[in-house]
TrEMBL record:
Domain tRNA-specific 2-thiouridylase MnmA-like central as annotated: residue spans: 204-266
Known catalytic reactions: S-sulfanyl-L-cysteinyl-[protein] + uridine(34) in tRNA + AH2 + ATP = 2-thiouridine(34) in tRNA + L-cysteinyl-[protein] + A + AMP + diphosphate + H(+)
Positions bearing the site annotation: Interaction with tRNA: H121, Q339
Natural source organism: Tumidithrix elongata BACA0141
Record protein name field: tRNA-specific 2-thiouridylase MnmA
SUPFAM superfamilies: Adenine nucleotide alpha hydrolases-like
Active site: C95, C194
A single BP term in Gene Ontology: tRNA wobble position uridine thiolation
Protein family: Belongs to the MnmA/TRMU family.
Name of the coding gene: mnmA
Cellular component GO terms held in the UniProt record: cytoplasm
Keyword Transferase applies: yes
Length: 358
């Protein structure tokens, strides 16, 4: 009997190709689309229609799961609370874990009796029989690699996931889509976070939830340089849009939501060599109990930098091995609370955690 798999279909070209490839390989494929956003979620409604067209084309069943509440609780609330507190939360890794993988697997198992799910993520999973762990590797196409956003996916889910595009380049994916004649073959690449695509900008999205309270933009000595309309409009390392005239470029160095201040300084003042992370999820490696060396990536598009990860006893929720101090070999530009620090050894993703306020 054909092996059954549920493919998470966003209506984009990547997940369409993932479904088409598995279908071609003889899998019994079911498409599943999560309805994520209320209100301005035009991209969701378009996505659902495009995903339905793919399912018709491949002649496979299509399930739509209303996940708007799950998305609101786990992503919208998370973003709004984080930005209001002066951090820059990372929604995609949280979404993958809390909205996509775990709930999709649960639905697949409980409602459809299917044990495996697939997505169009660019990353690779391998089982390591020595450690008994499911390991995550960067995608072959480094420009498209999405492993950074997958560091939170628990071992219990990874063992039930397939990433058919992990060995492909984006150009190959497009070519395969054209060869299959998929209706999504020519669909343009999504440029940004789905929330930004839906709302125009993060600022427009957040302004619906967070009151715009005017405050001061100050330098690191406390001198007032200008005015802002809400600390949630800023992120660490930001240079553009400060509205402050200065002889040399100024960057956001810190955000003090309590005092309602944005603190700016020159580039060197945004650099730090250490940070603490919490809520660590160990992926390819069993939880470290002594310091380890790794390449640590502090933003999706920031190149990894060599560092020592020193485990601390417990995290904010009291779990052992889930908090660590990261000591970089060189100072790093704009270490940003709320973003993820993800550790790699070459292509292998070891684990990751969330950066605490410095
Ligand atoms: N609403 C959704 N419902 C089900 N699965 C989804 C949904 N959104 C994304 N996914 C899955 O997660 C993968 C990565 O999503 P991401 O938002 O990064 O899209 P992407 O890289 O542009 O991929 P695609 O071209 O398939 O949209 C998708 O390929 C798809 O398998």
């Amino acid at each position: 009997m054909a092996k059954k798999v549920v493919v998470g279909l966003s209506g984009g070209v990547d997940s369409s190709v993932a479904a088409a490839l598995l279908h071609q390989q003889g899998y019994d494929v079911t498409g599943l689309t999560l309805w994520l956003m209320r209100g301005k979620g035009q991209c969701c409604s378009d996505g659902m229609v495009d995903a339905a067209k793919i399912c018709e084309q491949l002649n496979i069943p299509h399930e739509i799961v209303d996940s708007r509440d799950v998305f609101e609780q786990n992503i919208i609330n998370y973003l709004v609370t984080g930005y209001a507190a002066g951090s820059t939360p990372l929604p995609c890794s949280r979404c993958n874990k809390a909205v996509k993988f775990t709930p999709m697997l649960q639905y697949a198992k409980e409602q459809l009796g299917i044990e495996t799910i697939a997505t169009g993520h660019y990353a690779r999973i391998k089982f390591d029989s020595d450690t008994g762990r499911y390991q995550l590797y960067r995608a072959v196409d480094r420009a498209k690699d999405q492993s950074y956003f997958l560091y939170e996916v628990p071992q219990t889910d990874l063992g039930h996931c397939v990433f058919p595009l992990g060995e492909l380049t984006k150009a190959e994916t497009r070519q395969i889509a054209a060869e299959f004649g998929l209706t999504t073959a020519e669909k343009p690449e999504s440029q940004d976070l789905c929330l930004i695509e839906a709302h125009g900008s993060m600022r427009e999205f957040l302004d619906q939830y967070i009151y715009q309270r005017k405050g001061n933009i100050v330098d690191t000595q406390g001198n007032i340089l200008g005015e802002h309309e809400g600390t949630h409009h800023y992120t660490i390392g930001q240079r553009k849009g400060l509205g402050v005239a200065a002889a040399h470029p100024l960057y956001v160095v810190a955000i003090d939501a309590g005092k309602n201040e944005v603190i700016v300084g020159d580039r060197a003042e945004t650099e730090a060599q250490e940070c603490t992370i919490n809520q660590i999820n160990w992926v390819s490696l069993a939880p470290a109990t002594s310091p380890i060396r790794a390449e640590v990536q502090i933003r999706y598009r920031t190149p990894p930098a060599l560092a020592t990860i020193v485990p601390l006893d417990s995290d904010s929720q009291g779990d052992a091995n889930r908090r660590a101090r990261i000591v970089f070999d060189e100072p790093q530009f704009s270490i940003t609370p709320g973003q993820a620090a993800v550790f790699y050894s070459g292509e292998l993703l070891l684990g990751g955690g969330l950066i605490e306020p410095l």
